[in-house]
Amino acid sequence: MSEPALLRNFSIIAHIDHGKSTLADRLLEATGTIAKREMQEQIMDSMELERERGITIKAKAVRMRHALAAGREYTLNLIDTPGHVDFTYEVSRALAACEGALLVVDATQGIQAQTIANLHLANEVGLKVIPVINKIDLPSADVDGTAEQIFDILHLLEEPLLVSAKQGIGVDATLKAIVERLPPPVGDAAKPIAALVFDSTFSSYRGVVLLVRVVDGAIRQGVKARFFSTGLEVVIEEVGYLTPRQTPAEQLSAGEVGYVITGIKDIHQFRVGDTIMEAARPLSAPLPGYKEAKPVVFAGVFPINASDYPQLKAALEKLNLEDSSFNYFPENSEALGFGYRLGFLGLLHMDIIKERLEREFGLALIITAPNVVYRVQTRDSQWHVVDNPAKFPPHGEILIVEEPYVLMTIILPIEHQEGVLNLLKDRRGVHVGVEYLAASRMMVSYQLPLGEMVVNFYDRLKSVSKGYASMDYQPIGYKPAEMVRLEILIHGEPVDALNQIVHKDKAYAVGKAMCAKLKELIDRQNFEVAIQARIGGKIIARETLGARRKDVLAKCYGGDITRKRKLLEKQKEGKRRAKLLGSVEINQEAFLAVLKLDEGRK
After folding, report:
1. Which superfamily is assigned to 194-278 in CATH?
2. pTM over the 0.90 mark
3. Top-level class of domain 297-367
4. Which is the most buried residue in 97, 100, 550, 590, by most CB within 10 A?
């Protein structure tokens, strides 16, 4: 148990790739939390995928001990957070467990969109923010310019700390600032238990391991506790600290951060962000900051080999125990067979889940085109929530279609504004405002349909800005839109896995591009194959795949022309019968190529 005055709970927040995880490594090293022989890069990022991509995916917590010259030993609880916009809710939960934050800004890149977004999150929960300028050792570092941006754009008046996390420069000054500038937690160990669950992991042997910040009271082994939102009652089996290994302790007291094991085997029995309270002394209101994470992007996941369906089911169940932020339910496609429809927090989240399924469970998968959730009012005045193009009502029954919008904030060099603004215009963006941050940098704000953003928007943004633009977005609700379901027919049969919900103005371009791509990829048959794009009952685009030809006249070395004509007529009749009875098999490469198609959205 630590004295509250000697406790500091803080987080490190930054735009992706500004050196947050590297600074965390140096702090762990400087405090002796991790022995040098055990040290490795991105020590807080335990997942192979996190190391490989250089990003933090899940929030982590670690307890450090640091003694100042005065001889007093402080306990520092670092709660590490993700940097990507898809995991904003995870960042907000972690910040709710802290009193302060280090805001890291890359001296070579300056302030980016996520820097501003994370600062707003920190301000919302009333955190004390210490600005840190990282990578000061690089030749391209502009320390003075970055300090000006912190003052002018972020309005942080404190002198920023100058750090090179890679070289270890300024780490001691950072530790001193954490102790001297950040406030200690305020809480009363005598009050009833109130603890915030800011994350969870799953152990095959111990069940669910909860990461908690105790606000009031003291959690001990044997105490009967209850979750506020679900009402689930549990008995505390073990409490302890993360150093970063699990180290059991007698209790977690007010202000402390640690882990709690309750024997829960199903991660869905509680909610991350919930409040733990004492069953005997329940609270009248939960701790602030809880909201349910809602998936915004949906896609179908199918095994390439149909016999792998049971393995896919088992893999999703196991993965969902570790990451409850995605949801899944069974889906059946005529073209792809049995699979699942998954809901994700964003495109990066979708990419990570797919890669983990393939790597950790050895599955070969097809993911259908991602789509967002639409709201549709039909002529019977009923509203329908549509997360799958197959559920989109028939064209004649629709009164109103509403699509989700986001407020997009993009920071970019002024010389790239034309390309970025044209991209936003092509994606049906609505101008909100422009702000000039410095002589060479600007921030543009646009309202953008979420459906336009999930299809290759980030890659296109990086392309038109030569990699210099950064973006952040937040949901702002639904707006009416002229959306239609685009169906693809192969040889007269609709292929449900290729259905898409697109804007009416872009339907022709998307349908034409998909038909042309399928014509390239589908193998020729013994008969002519029509590839069509349809909206409602109207064909809007068509490509014809010619029949595979055989030279039936090769055996005719001479003779009357009627003999040749007879053979050609016989071949023609055979093709006609094959066309009536035949079916076309679409290979997996064709599906993958078409689903990645971005024509009509450039």
Report:
1. Translation factors (2.40.30.10)
2. no
3. alpha beta
4. 97
